[in-house]
């Protein structure tokens, strides 16, 4: 088992990214369960408007409200939130300008949609700002959430998404927008944050993982773990099995051992060996990134709530802890 997943002991914001199709939303949900174990409370946030979290917990689409979605192992609670940019802007207008009902009027007039469309970066500022608020929120001197998990955009877009606050802060020299952006970037670049990258043992996801680690480190974001999803059992990378050995084995087991059957089985073994050798090489490339690498098993029954708890258990054994 590799070193602890949490390379940054103070991490309270866990950002999960990965190439599309690697299962990053599933892994984010499992991570939220693992971090909530033992009586803690975590918030699982999605920012892309896909409503990918709710179906995994058998729920209707999430509202713009933090609601309980699961009980974690050994007690604890996972809440979830689907961040809506327009609603986040209303929060922002109320927080900094005390507009209250006037902000709702602006929404009806279409001014909010106009603002987030004419300045696309503002949408990402609002989304990340809402997440930052949840991370730092306190009630009577105690943090409301022990950890926040963000299901972030894919690796191809995550760098720009997370760095947009720095770009906006550079444009806005003074005022609440700069204050907000500076505050978000202070959290994202601090030990409170860890960005985890989900991948598969396939060439394109591994390459995108390497590119993402380089990009994110280049803009000062702390990298957490590489999470290798859907890992199957023991491989036969070094297996050397002849057709004669296969034929003897089939005969000994009382199975058909005709030429066509033996050849078909030999071809499957050869395909597996090639695949296993490729995976071995790709795993070496991931190791060279210098981050903890954690394997998450392939769930043959398909991913459902039970599968999420199975992955959460693996993550806990790999060292996941809420700070």
UniProtKB/TrEMBL annotation:
The molecular function terms of the Gene Ontology recorded here are: ATP binding; ATP hydrolysis activity
SUPFAM superfamilies per the UniProt record, alphabetical: P-loop containing nucleoside triphosphate hydrolases (SSF52540)
One Pfam family matching this protein: ArsA_ATPase
Annotated PANTHER family: ARSENICAL PUMP-DRIVING ATPASE ARSENITE-TRANSLOCATING ATPASE (PTHR10803), ATPASE RV3679-RELATED (PTHR10803:SF31)
Protein name according to UniProt: Oxyanion-translocating ATPase
Q: Identify the domain of life.
A: Bacteria
- Domain ArsA/GET3 Anion-transporting ATPase-like as annotated: residue spans: 14-168
Native organism is Cryptosporangium arvum DSM 44712
Q: Which InterPro entries match?
A: ArsA/GET3_ATPase-like, ATPase_ArsA/GET3, P-loop_NTPase
């Amino acid at each position: 088992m590799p070193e602890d997943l949490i390379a940054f002991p103070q991490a309270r914001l866990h950002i999960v990214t990965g190439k599309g199709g690697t299962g990053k939303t599933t892994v984010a949900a499992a991570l939220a369960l693992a971090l909530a174990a033992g009586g803690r409370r975590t918030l699982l946030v999605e920012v892309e408007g896909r409503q990918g979290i709710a179906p995994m917990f058998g729920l209707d689409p999430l509202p713009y409200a933090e609601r309980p979605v699961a009980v974690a192992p050994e007690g604890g609670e996972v809440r979830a939130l689907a961040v809506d940019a327009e609603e986040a802007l209303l929060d922002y207008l109320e927080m900094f300008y005390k507009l209250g009902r006037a902000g709702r009027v602006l929404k009806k007039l279409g001014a909010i949609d106009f603002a987030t469309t004419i300045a696309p970066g503002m949408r990402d500022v609002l989304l990340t700002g809402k997440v930052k608020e949840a991370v730092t929120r306190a009630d009577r001197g105690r943090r409301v959430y022990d950890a926040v998990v963000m299901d972030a955009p894919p690796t191809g877009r995550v760098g720009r998404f997370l760095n947009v606050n720095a770009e906006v802060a550079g444009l806005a020299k003074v005022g609440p927008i700069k204050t907000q952006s500076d505050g978000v970037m202070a959290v994202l670049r601090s030990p409170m944050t860890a960005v985890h990258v989900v991948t598969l043992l396939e060439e394109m996801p591994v390459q995108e993982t390497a590119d993402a680690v380089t990009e994110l480190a280049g803009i000062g974001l702390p990298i957490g773990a590489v999470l290798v999803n859907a890992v199957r059992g023991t491989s036969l990378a070094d297996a050397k099995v002849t057709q004669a050995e296969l034929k003897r084995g089939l005969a000994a087991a009382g199975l058909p051992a005709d030429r066509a059957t033996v050849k078909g089985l030999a071809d499957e073994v050869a395909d597996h060996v090639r695949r296993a050798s490729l995976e071995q090489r790709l795993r070496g490339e991931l190791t060279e990134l210098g981050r903890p690498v954690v394997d998450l098993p392939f769930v043959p029954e398909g991913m459902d709530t039970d599968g999420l708890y199975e992955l959460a258990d693996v993550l806990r054994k790999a060292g996941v802890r809420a700070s």
